Amino acid sequence: MRSSIIGYPRIGKQRELKFSIEGYFKGAVFLEKLKEDAWKIRREQWAALADSGLDFIPSNDFSFYDGMLDMAASLNAIPESYKALELDSLNTYFAMARGYQGEKGDVKALPMKKWFNTNYHYIVPAIDDDTQIKLNGEDIFAYYSEALDAGIKTKPVIIGPFTFLKLADYKGKKKLKDFVADTVTAYCEIITRLNELGAEWIQIDEPILVTDLNVADVETFTAIYTELLKHKHDLKVLIQTYFGDVRDCYREIISLPFDGIGLDFVEGSNSLDLVRDNGFSKDTVLFAGIVNGKNIWKNSYLKSLKTLNDLSQYVEKKNIVINTSCSLLHVPYTLKNEKELSESYKARFAFAEEKLTELTELKALFGDENYLSNENYCNNLALFTSKANSTNEEVKGKMTALTEKDFTRQPVFNERAKLHKDFFKLPLLPTTTIGSFPQTAEVKANRAKLKKGEITQAQYEENVKRKIEECIALQEEIGIDVLVHGEFERNDMVEYFGEHLNGYLFTRNAWVQSYGTRCVKPPIIWGDVSRSEPITVEYLKFAQSLTKKPVKGMLTGPVTILNWSFPREDISLKEMAFQIALAIKEEVSDLESNGINIIQIDEAALKEKLPIRRADWHSEYLDWAIPAFRLVHSGVKATTQIHTHMCYSEFVEIVKDIDAMDADVISFEASRSNLTIIDALNKNNFITAVGPGVYDIHSPRVPEVEEIISAINAMLEKLKSDKLWVNPDCGLKTRGVDETIASLKNLVSAAKAVREKLGNK
Ligand code: GLN
Ligand code: ZN
To answer: Residue 502: what are its φ and ψ, rounded to 5°?
Structure first.
């Protein structure tokens, strides 16, 4: 029996690589030191992986920024603007990752996108008509040799040609098919070189195969690999898929001469059926992904062995390698870093390091005919039969009592809109912001001092209130119509609510790479979620007491809270979303009874977990995610106005679902270059009023009044004036104070100017 992993985290157990790279960016760390730090991390990890008993140890899963970007650089997909900077290869690479502004020029970073259905972001390769795809760079070979020198034979890992070409952005007239031949040649060279170096296996990642593919896609895939596999000589080629099943091309995969095929049996709902119904090529090794690479709960050996035993009916046992479902990049390093977490919790979790132990134990159990009496098996079984202390009868009761009414707001939108007109008496094109105001050093210091015990809770709250006073006064002075309190009490929009809800657990060091050097620390949903006391009411009530204008209450929605947490595995996502919704609903109701008449429920991450396959969009996600949002606000008074916010505008394909959230107003990002969303809103008779951001808050640039006026006018060409709000495109917390004030002043002047033109002052 053998075991393998697809990839390992690389940022360092204590985020050493992050700090080293950031130090290098700031000029505080020399290149030599950065390279040495990186080498140390690689070497220590290889040694640890070898010690764990793993049979296939990955190399080239390391990256200074991102694996897709590594592949782009290795294939010479480096746009001319970066080459023209004439930097060395690492700095050219960093320029693509984060832009370059200095004596050699001024170039923006390549865009970033979410890596399938994870919270990891990859850099989108840009391919121009004159891009010459060819092997460029030695990293893959250097890492292989480096590990070999340390006495460890590795399995180099690369992103596959088909996934690479499908995810790249073609800037000119040429399209994917025009680059296939050169790409195949480059990959052939990689294979040949690794073969010469004596590598036994190469893992080629093709996660794109789990997405919806059409006939032409499958043909391209087949053509690429038919050619590529002619050149493999003695090297064994493993095609690795993850994040789902390969239903559109399983037959093609098994008829190609791969030496290994990696399938995901955790997220791949059809994987087992595919093997059963179509068989599996004899002599080919099945890398069976059964240890979840995305979540942090212990593996159920009962379930995994059942899958493995089922598989062994179709694949010879000796040809089954026990694998993770995807790279362990998506989970934190180790539970050993969680000194403050009690053993009763830790007993149920497995981070990357603990998953290695699971692989080793599963390997032994799979090879043991009498595993049912094996101690590891029995302990694991006991864990899953004993209940975690996580149920809350009251929550359960509320959940079973839910009826259709709880998901339906009354009266309907148009009637509410009429009432709101008289109730709020807002001008045409009302102005507002998305919630947060700059998190200045002072604001952060206040939180830090409380944490260190340097100030009391009462002092802390007083300080927050002083900031709220300033913020309200500022917005009054600028002339904004719907005010916010500024969110000075929040570190993060999910963590803040998690900390105030029962059923949540927090870690100290459980960082997961989100992009480049940025890491996130998702909280863990441990048990049934409930709210025991008001969370935001005190500050909101205070803010509203300072002004006659409406202050908008600011909450994070259930789907976003869920999507940015590690979810439970013993109940469904739907159940968790509804529990969180019920907790936030109580907050809505308390805000309302304390005089807050406008409430924004942010769903910044709603689209993130939209299933990879279109056929699953509704049945597996939207059919409960949208109701979860409605559950939060269905009980409010007719006069209460509900807002929501999303950090993106790419929801053209789910416009109807967004409308079905039944909010009164939605704000979202809308850069001027991309007003296609507004056409989609029109075409679908979108009912909800909209606030497409009139300027980009991700840059320190202050937008001119004229610029904002033309943005508003462009929107008015397609939207009715009584449906349009004027606001920035996201929260202002990352911005400086001066630029924020200047930008908002211009925003208000612009709204006023357009209003006057429309004859409404
Ligand atoms: N209300 C939040 C803020 O303004 C929204 C943040 C977000 O959309 N990511 O910061
Ligand atoms: Zn946003």
So the answer is: -75, 150
**CB neighbours (10 Å) of residue 454?**
11
**Residue 730 C-alpha to ligand 2 middle, in angstroms?**
4
What confidence tens digit (pLDDT) does each residue in 219-237 have?
A: 999 999 999 999 999 999 9
Tell me the C-alpha to C-alpha distance, in Å, between residue 565 and each of 54, 295, 331, 504, 573. 29, 10, 12, 9, 11
Residue 698 appears among annotated catalytic residues: yes
Contact 190, 224 (CB under 8 A): no
* CATH number belonging to domain 56-230: 3.20.20.210
The DSSP letter of residue 203 is E
CA distances to 75, 153, 522, 559, 622 from 657, rounded to whole Å, are: 40, 50, 27, 14, 7
493 CA to middle of ligand 1, Å? 7
3-state helix, strand, coil in the chain (%, to 5): 45, 15, 40
C-alpha–C-alpha distance, residues 246 and 674, integer Å:
33
CA distance 364 to 304: 13
Our CA angle for 473, 478, 479, nearest 5°, is 95
H or E stretch including 39? helix 31-51
Q: Quick check: 562 and 610 in contact, CB under 8 A? A: no
Q: What is the pLDDT of residue 674?
A: 65
- The mean pLDDT value for 739-759 works out to 97
Are the C-beta atoms of residues 748 and 478 closer than 8 Å to each other? yes
Q: How many CB atoms lie within 10 A of CB 360?
A: 18
Q: In terms of Cα–Cα distance, which of 473, 466, 583, 470 is closest to 536?
A: 583
The predicted pLDDT at position 430 comes to 98
Q: How confident is the model at residue 696 (pLDDT cuts 50, 70, 90)?
A: confident
Q: Do you find a cis peptide bond into 111, omega within 30 degrees of 0? A: no
**Ligand 1 proximity of 554 Cβ (cutoff 6 Å):** yes
Q: φ, ψ for residue 225 (rounded to 5)?
A: -80, -25
Is residue 605 in contact with ligand 1, taking CB distance under 6 Å?
A: no
Give the DSSP H/E element, type plus range, for residue 286.
strand 285-291
Ordered strands of the 552-556 beta sheet: 552-556, 598-602, 641-646, 665-668, 689-692
Mutate to test the pocket of ligand 1, among 603, 646, 697, 730 (most ligand atoms within 8 A of CB): 730
CB 169 within 8 A of CB 124: yes
Count of other CB atoms within 10 angstroms of residue 272? 17
Spatial CA neighbour of 522 closest among 579, 577, 457, 567: 567
pLDDT at residue 386, rounded to an integer: 86
* Residue 76 burial (CB count, 10 A): 16
Give the global pTM. 0.94
Q: How far apart are CA 362 and CA 504, in angstroms?
A: 30
> pLDDT (tens digit, 9 = 90+) per residue, 586-621?
999 999 999 999 999 999 999 989 999 999 999 999
Please give the Cα distance from 618 to 156 (Å, whole number).
Answer: 38
Query: Where does CATH 3.20.20.210 sit in the chain?
Result: 56-230, 415-759
Reduced 3-state DSSP string for 294-333: CCCECCCHHHHHHHHHHHCCCCCHHHEEEEECCCHHHCCC
Give the long-range contacts of residues 379-384, CB within 8 A, separation 24 or more: 380/298, 380/299, 380/300, 380/301, 380/302, 381/301, 381/302, 383/298, 383/347, 383/348, 384/300, 384/302
Helices (H), 660-704: 676-683
Query: Residue 269 is encoded by which pair of tokens?
Result: 């709902």
Joined together, the tokens standing for residue 744 give: 């908002």
The dotted CATH code for 415-759 is 3.20.20.210
Q: Is 646 in the pocket of ligand 1 (CB under 6 A)?
A: no
Radius of gyration, CA atoms only, the chain: 27
Spatial separation of the C-alpha atoms in residues 106 and 102, rounded to whole Å: 6
Name the residue with the closest Cα to ligand 1, atom 10.
731
